[in-house]
Specification:
eight-stranded mixed β-sheet, elongated, 23 helices
Length: 764
């Protein structure tokens, strides 16, 4: 208890510098814990999103036994779900037909199911209807209410329940709903394949700089604190009590900072939750820290503070005279940097070499483990190798230079190489992580980018009435139509004219097409199987205008070929034969045919066409080929989270640099005063101060650029995409590194004060 009281007394009742240091340590830990809580709460937010989606998911009565049980249960509603894209966000329309008798199950957030002609919408969809009136066509009826938060995954979700009659839903594939509440979310916010690169990038982008930043904050004024502890030891305090006194101060500051950081996170989370700035919106209650997050923040931060300060406290307790006389510390351990850096560089370099020789391994369980491990080991080894590498370089420069400022800077850095680790490691890790983030964004861009010259839409032909069919083909924005038909052996044919076919392929790629003649359809980029060889026979089932069977028609793959070039995915890619409409008997169409429509690929046109088609056939499933709305929504969330991670990483790196640089300048006040009394000019001191920072920073940034590009390329090589080398992002990285170097140089100039009080010189 006496040791605890002494530690608290020194922390609270010390001199002005001690109190300022305590406040800065507390504030620094608060900012770090807030960032840590934000990163660790992402899985909690995603889990809350998926839980809400699972609780409202309809459990249908499927199978014969389930249908029999459902027949005996009165008041089961019918349900039919349709999901359409609105940009990168899905619009979910759930068509429900409530039974005439009450007592039917209802989803969360809804007091009763809407009746025919009634629509319940989410608040975000209600607001969007005023901005995009075209969406109203897919919601037949009048809006009578809104869905509560319990029935939505987030405040920005576009969701609606549309009331219909049982007769309107019977023929559209609807199912009876036994209850609401499934075991799993039908459309998770982020699937495992998307979470893996997100976790990997955020660990490199935020957690590594955050660890450095917290270490810097708990080591503020390390030299003066060590000398004060050494004085206590010389006054008779035991070595164990000396270490405990140091631990009390650092742990108290870290504990207060952890509590303040959690409060800062909660305030920021409540302000950002519903805005959707991160690509994902959630309710504030969903982002409350979990137990594991609370343990990591409230216990992990003080534990880190204790570990970071224990080494120097033990040195002051065991060697108090050496600390008081400012003897040089031990040389940095080169073997520790080699143990981490060499395996990491070996892993990432091996994958880069495999990419160079065209033997990319592609995504697998092994690469998903080795590539993140190699990147993390490389980043850690990069930071730990800075002190020995820069000390060696400083010794070489000091032996050859004739400039006083450079000599002072290099000799000081040679004597204290560990200072480089504290000053520049945050910015070095930031540049390293930025390169990795570029690789993840390039990989995601390859997944989400669609370079097709047209957008293709697929609708079930037989579910459209003649009136709906005519309106759909003449909808504004639609520039082509065709039919995709399946043979009895599941191979596909396209029913279209030559002009219609041209709207679904690359412009000018149709070669050898003749109207009115059955032709073999070939794409040189698609391998040809035996079923597509000339002479192969296939059977096409037919139906009449009322949907009744109308016989069959046998088709033989002809020798004459029409050659096209198609951007996949497309229904034309898998087709073997081009059948002109005149080749089919009058009044018939292929069984189970799919109506194919085409439009321009720009986002505004796609959105307008989807709105018009939904207004023509509200309950018909409309599939925009090549647009996986769940994937686009997840990519938007991932990009938003990565952008937030880059902002956090930038703030953490800059804060670590400023704090450590200012602390370094304050710890050198005695030496600076001595040099001033010896006649060293202020300009020389400023140049020396800048050189002490610029040398390790320049070395670290150069190594970060090289190691970061290797790690990025290894990620791209194993990601399964077509791009292995991100040369387009290299100029941006170089410009960023140069800007960091210039800002660091300029920011160091004011730290060497011109007028120093000689009283800061201390005597032992």
């Amino acid at each position: 208890m006496k040791t605890l009281a002494l530690g608290l007394l020194l922390a609270v009742r010390g001199d002005r510098a001690t109190r300022v240091r305590f406040v800065l340590m507390t504030a620094g830990c608060a900012i770090g814990v807030a960032c840590l809580a934000a990163v660790l709460s992402i899985p909690t937010i995603v889990a809350a999103h998926d839980t809400r989606a699972a609780l409202r998911d309809a459990v249908p009565a499927r199978g014969a036994a389930a249908q029999q049980r459902a027949e005996g249960l009165p008041g089961l509603p019918l349900s039919l779900e349709r999901r359409d894209p609105f940009g990168s966000r899905p619009v979910t329309r759930v068509f429900v037909a409530r039974p005439p008798r009450g007592g039917s199950p209802t989803p969360p957030g809804v007091s009763r199911l809407p009746g025919p002609g009634e629509v319940l919408v989410s608040p975000a969809l209600r607001a969007l209807l005023t901005e995009a009136p075209g969406l109203k066509g897919g919601l037949p009826g009048r809006v009578t209410g809104t869905i509560g938060p319990a029935g939505l995954t987030g405040p920005d979700e576009l969701y609606a329940y549309v009331g219909r009659t049982p007769r309107q839903l019977t023929a559209t594939g609807s199912e009876k709903v036994v209850r609401y509440g499934a075991a799993y979310a039908p459309h998770p916010a982020l699937d495992e394949g998307t979470l893996d690169p997100l976790r990997f990038t955020l660990c490199c982008l935020v957690l590594l700089p955050l660890f450095v930043y917290l270490s810097v904050c708990v080591r503020l004024s390390a030299e003066s604190r060590s000398r004060r502890l050494a004085a206590l030891r010389l006054l008779g305090l035991s070595a164990r009590d000396t270490v405990r006194v140091s631990a009390v101060e650092t742990v108290c500051a870290a504990a207060l900072g952890a509590v303040a950081g959690l409060g800062l996170y909660l305030a920021a989370e409540a302000a950002v939750a519903g805005t959707g700035w991160l690509g994902l919106a959630w309710y504030p209650a969903d982002g409350l820290p979990s137990r594991s997050t609370l343990v990591a923040c409230l216990l992990g931060c003080p534990a880190l503070a204790h570990v970071a300060g224990r080494r120097h406290a033990r040195e002051a307790a065991l060697r108090p005279l050496a600390v008081r006389r400012r003897e040089h510390g031990t040389r940095p351990r080169r073997w520790l940097a080699a143990v981490l850096a060499l395996p990491g560089l070996g892993i990432v370099s091996t994958y880069c070499l495999l990419g160079l020789v065209d033997k990319a391994p592609g995504p697998s369980a092994t690469t998903s483990l080795l590539v993140p491990a190699g990147a993390l080991l490389t980043g850690a080894g990069l930071v730990l190798s800075l002190p020995p590498a820069t000390a060696w370089l400083a010794r070489r420069i000091a032996a050859r230079t004739q400039r006083v400022s450079l000599t002072l800077a290099m000799r000081h850095h040679e004597a204290h190489p560990g200072m480089a680790l504290r000053v520049v490691s945050g910015l070095v890790l930031l540049v390293y992580a930025a390169s990795l983030t570029q690789g993840v964004l390039v990989e995601l861009d390859q997944v989400s980018r669609r370079a097709a010259p047209n957008q293709e839409y697929e609708l079930p032909y037989e579910r459209l009435t003649p009136s709906q069919l005519g309106h759909a083909e003449r909808a504004s924005g639609v520039n082509g139509r065709a039919l995709a038909a399946d043979f009895t052996d599941r191979e596909t044919a396209v029913v279209a004219t030559c002009a219609q076919l041209a709207t679904f392929v690359r412009p000018g790629s149709v070669k050898g097409c003749v109207d009115g003649e059955i032709l073999a359809l070939r794409d040189p980029d698609v391998p040809l199987g035996p079923e597509g060889l000339p002479g192969a026979e296939h059977t096409l089932r037919l139906r009449d205008a009322e949907g009744r069977p109308a016989g069959e028609q046998r088709l033989t793959v002809p020798r004459r070929t029409v050659t096209v070039s198609v951007v996949q995915p497309s229904n034309v890619t898998s087709a073997l034969v081009l059948v002109p409409p005149s080749a089919l008997p009058a009044g018939t169409h292929p069984a189970a045919a799919r109506l194919l429509l085409s439009s321009a690929p720009d986002q505004d046109t796609v959105r307008a066409v989807l709105d018009r088609l939904a207004a023509i056939a509200p309950t018909i499933e409309i599939t925009p080929v090549g647009i996986v709305i769940d994937t686009l929504n997840q990519l938007t969330a991932v990009k938003g989270l990565l952008g937030t991670g880059m902002v956090l990483g930038l703030g953490i790196g800059v804060a670590a640099f400023l704090v450590s640089t200012a602390d370094h300048a304050m710890s050198r006040r005695t030496r600076t005063a001595a040099l001033t009394l010896l006649g060293i000019r202020p300009g020389t001191l400023r140049a020396a101060q800048s050189a002490q920072v610029v040398l390790p920073l320049a070395c670290g940034l150069t190594a970060a650029l090289v190691a970061g590009k290797l790690a990025e390329s290894s990620y791209l090589v194993t990601g399964g995409g077509a791009v292995f080398w991100d040369t387009a992002g290299l100029p941006l990285l170089l410009a960023s590194a140069l800007a960091v170097l210039i800002v660091a140089t300029v920011s160091c100039l004011p730290l060497a004060r011109r007028h120093l009080d000689p009283e800061v010189l201390r005597k032992d």
